[in-house]
From TrEMBL:
Residue ranges occupied by any Radical SAM core domain in the UniProt entry: 1-228
Source organism of the structure: Staphylococcus capitis
Pfam families: HemN_C (PF06969), Radical_SAM (PF04055)
Compartments where located: Cytoplasm
Chief localisation class: cytoplasm
PROSITE patterns in alphabetical order: RADICAL_SAM
Name of this chain's protein: Heme chaperone HemW
CDD domains: Radical_SAM (cd01335)
Family: Belongs to the anaerobic coproporphyrinogen-III oxidase family. HemW subfamily.
Entry annotated with the keyword Transcription: no
Amino acid sequence: MTVKSAYIHIPFCVRICTYCDFNKYFIDKQPVDEYLDALIKEMQVENNRKLETMYVGGGTPTALNIVQLEKLLKAINNTFTIHGEYSFEANPDELTYEKVALLKKYGVNRISMGVQTFKPELLEILGRTHKTNDIYSAVNNARKAGINSISLDLMYHLPQQSLEDFKQSLELALEMDIDHISSYGLILEPKTQFYNMYRKGHLKLPNEDLGADMYQYLMKRLEDSNLNQYEISNFGKKGHESTHNKVYWLNEEYYGFGAGASGYVDGVRYTNLNPVNHYIKAIYNNEEPILTKNTPTFEERMEEEMFLGLRMNQGVSISRFKRKFGINIEEVFGQTITDLINRNLLENKCGYISLTERGKVIGNEVFEAFLLNV
């Protein structure tokens, strides 16, 4: 299988958000230039130069200064030819016109902005550095520079967030005629500030029913807009769906570059070393900067095909499953599928197994049903 996608991780942030559990470090006094040198060296090891998608995430790639950003962009262009979607994550207050024009110059055609909410009080609770006005400025800068697709991340089920708060953020995003929205409910992850606050009784979350109400409102409201749901948490105008993320959901292979990045190449899933200094040291010692490697079994690959593919509105293709694994989907998961259809969580339609609206609300419960050895 030819690897057609790559993810690059920039693990630096100007401020650490209260809810974030990604591999990230406060950028001040970090060896950023040495990290970029190591990252470039890791990328150049790969022989496959032609890619269909590239995604640069973090951390926050736009936390890099303009010189560092150009150094990274030049290295990517010197190493790979990207034929399709080229995405960069950005914080609204860091997306100056100078930076977004630089991204455009080097071929970036999609920006994913970590907006999370338009409400100032909630931005403060989340530890975000931007203000509401920065969102409008960043979108205007991206449009002025000629970026083809602009996506906003919005969160729901946040501490002190009401349904009306979430509705308002959604409406403000829609008024901007955004191309794509990714919207996720808050999950308390270990090692985050929120998790520690919750354990100490200093954080109160909305109840689960309110979170479900917010999600159902999200689906209904965007169904009435020109943003079509194509995955559990993702909505886009026609032609603006994230082709990079579809690589993950279709269980296809991709490179992962940078500290803490994950990849899937030649049937092996791997995760790179997390600490920046450990990653840099491994690269300069000409060692693989890999922390873990795992080759999924045949059963595990079939499980992954189901719980990743079911995230998409289209669902899992019955014929593709047969071509990929040489076995009918019913022989492996027939009883599970039947049980979930009877519970109105799945449907079998037009050659695809997919989630119903009710199934989307409790998606994790559905996904767990496809773990064969649990």
